[in-house]
Recover the amino acids of this structure.
């Protein structure tokens, strides 16, 4: 039996309000060259009842406790058989019925692609906007990551990178992207809106995400890159006064002042 082009993985937990919309957006895709894997974290509500209504569309169903979303996402990848893995988690849904068809045309044309990144439709309470963050080394070292809802990884690349590091609570997807850049994987950006995403998911905890992003950048690209990210975040989010205070507390400002003999210009 030929392996499918896609392994579509849905991770869910107590998702009775949103799981059906997610599943329906997949089963209505015009391209059927996929297997469907659902990893449920032992839901206590009616999530499994709804999932069981779509049994004929589901190839693998895992329902057991996990340690978090990235642990569950790894469970899905470990049983996947498709050439490319895509995570359509509970609450997300494909933008249009021809998404997999359009993505497949690009992947079949260039079989050497390790990572394909499209765009998403970001949904806020009163409006929505297309988010197009290009996957590139420049963006990654600046701490900018395309959302995983727009990303297709080859299964071989996922395994090469070691899957998701679930020591991270919010940014394991960014860690995976950083490793892909570090290992010079073959990637492509595609002008296709892949999925709808409701703002406010796991990676939306800004404080945790900021700390983890700094750690990831330091681990993969060094202290200088991580420090630049930290300085940039402080300046744009808290202003110049807070940035100068942070630099002074870290001894950096005093060093620069002595080196350039500009201490007289420092405002205390």
């Amino acid at each position: 039996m030929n392996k499918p082009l896609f392994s579509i993985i849905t991770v869910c937990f107590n998702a009775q309000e949103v799981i059906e919309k997610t599943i329906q957006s997949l089963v209505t895709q015009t391209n059927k060259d996929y297997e469907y894997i659902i990893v449920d974290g032992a839901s206590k509500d009616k999530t499994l009842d709804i999932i069981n209504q779509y049994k004929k569309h589901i190839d693998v169903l895992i329902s057991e406790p996990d340690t978090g979303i990235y642990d569950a996402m790894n469970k899905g990848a470990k049983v996947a058989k498709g050439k490319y893995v895509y995570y359509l988690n509970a609450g997300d849904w494909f933008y249009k019925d021809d998404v997999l068809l359009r993505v497949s045309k690009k992947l079949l044309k260039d079989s050497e692609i390790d990572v394909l990144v499209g765009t998403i439709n970001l949904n806020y309470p009163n409006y929505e906007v297309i988010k197009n963050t290009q996957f590139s080394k420049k963006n990654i070292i600046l701490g900018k990551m395309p959302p995983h809802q727009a990303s297709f990884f080859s299964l071989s690349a996922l395994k090469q990178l070691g899957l998701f590091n679930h020591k991270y609570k919010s940014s394991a997807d960014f860690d995976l992207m950083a490793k892909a850049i570090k290992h010079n994987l073959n990637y492509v950006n595609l002008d296709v809106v892949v999925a709808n995403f409701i703002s406010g998911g796991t990676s939306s905890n800004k404080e945790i995400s900021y700390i983890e992003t700094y750690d990831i950048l330091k681990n993969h690209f060094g202290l200088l890159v991580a420090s630049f990210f930290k300085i940039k975040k402080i300046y744009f989010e808290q202003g110049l006064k807070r940035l100068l205070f942070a630099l002074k507390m870290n001894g950096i400002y005093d060093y620069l002042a002595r080196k350039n003999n500009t201490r007289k210009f420092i405002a205390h």
